[in-house]
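Table S7 (text form). Paired inputs.
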Amino acid sequence: MRNILLIFLDGVGIGKEDYQHNPFYKYPFKTFTSIFNNIPNENNQVLIKNDKYLFPTDALLGIEGLPQSGTGQTSIFCGVNAQQIIGKHFGPFPYSTLLPIIEEQNIFSALIKENKKVLFANAFPQIFFDYLNEGKRRLSVSSLSCLNSGTPLLTYNDLLNGNALSAEIDNHRWVNRLNYNLPIINPELAAQRLLNLAEQNNFVLFEYFYSDHLGHGRLADNFTDIFNTLDNFLYYILTNYNEKTTVLICSDHGNIEDLSIKTHTTNPCLTIAAGKNSSLAYNQINDISKIKQFIWSELC
């Protein structure tokens, strides 16, 4: 089965070679140093090793200002220049004008129409479903895409049975903040579960937003633990994927790469392509709106 695993990292750009404010320099990050033998920065934005490509993608899309999640994620998951459509960057949730576009053009709906097997690998706690049942719809682009396409949102039982991942990768916040009876797992096990899911579906999305939280100065007390968990997770993914799988790692805007501020940045987004046809992704994706088209062309 031809498959693509898309790992979306909220708020990760390519920043300066700054050992004080860029955590990829300040802390060990073996995903960069061991796999690419280097750390990306504004003067060295492209790193290539074997079938793995690290490269920048534009999040501004011709619009001045700081990129935001609502427009950025619409551009990624719907393959449009959402920023240009509404004439500004907007977030964290999508602008009202973008809602019909998300409903009609999201990647899940597009692939389902072609009889492709799709999965949103994140599990959601009961509090989220309670929010939905109250009729509230202030949601991220990924959640709206699933609701609009009929893609099931996964639950505690899926997470317990190893058929989903928690947003924080290791179940830590589900256990310690939401009081769920779950094992705290290591990031390598979580990564292997995600790779297993990728092999069972044509398209799998995993969304990680704690990188953006860290960039905004939230969760500062647990920064190194969260950062290391992400690093170990990505390293395992990029060293254990199936040769038939294409792994794409992307973001919607910069943030965490510059901890001297607590806002988003105008830096290019970090993008990584690995595995089957990764060189095509490197050659075809130069801004975040091109990601959906690449996925479509590979699977359809």
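Next pair, protein 2 of 2.
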Amino acid sequence: MKKILGRKQTSDARWIEAINRIEELVPRDELDKAVATAIKTIKKAVKGKNVAYAWSGGKDSLVLSEICEAACVKACMFAHTQLEYPAFLKWCLEHKPEKCEIMDMGFDLDWLAKHPTMLFPKGRELNKWYQIVQRAAFTKYFFEHNLDMIIVGHRKADGNIVGPDGTIRKGSGEIRFSPLADWPHEMILAYIHYHNVELPPIYDWHNGYKCGTHPWPSRMYTETIENGWREVYAIDPSIVTEAAEKIDSARLFLESEVAK
């Protein structure tokens, strides 16, 4: 296998190049071996345990889903907020796995208006989004369903902490297992290519691969609040129009657009 992609933050142009060259970068037989190993690893890890996997609708979770299903792990969860891109949420609800439980974590415009630092944040504030949505959902589902383990699609190539042997054991008793921890981006793209996996619309939008799946207020790399609204407006103007009723910066952005 040949690697040409670095961290997830690599430009979308580089991702598209990798997609166009994927058969050169990852031969089918190499992918098949990696998939067989992942299935074997999951079966060994979950034997005799109550387990489920986390699904987000993103490329990693789409691959994880098919591999977990092949390993006979069927139960899964999908967490969302009230601040999703409508087209993305619609796609997820239409394409979710058969035994997927939907978890509405809340966080609406009223909440966002009261927490302005969570709008197009950077650094520590950006990390809070992962904590209050994805991580909180993992924990909630884990204990509500008395799981022994929850399987997640976290990979080292994205900068995720995955723990020894892909396993994180929390003091609370929660265990998260990342069977694809060592997969590079190219392997994920190869699976999508060879297995004809349909991707959500988010990857067709500006910085789709760079930003990945996310509630729209946590959109990364916007530099400024104004540019954040500009990027979201280009994706779906209705989001900004609705937000303008409760958030001043959205209203000011719309007023400046009208004045042009």
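The chain has a mean pLDDT of 95.
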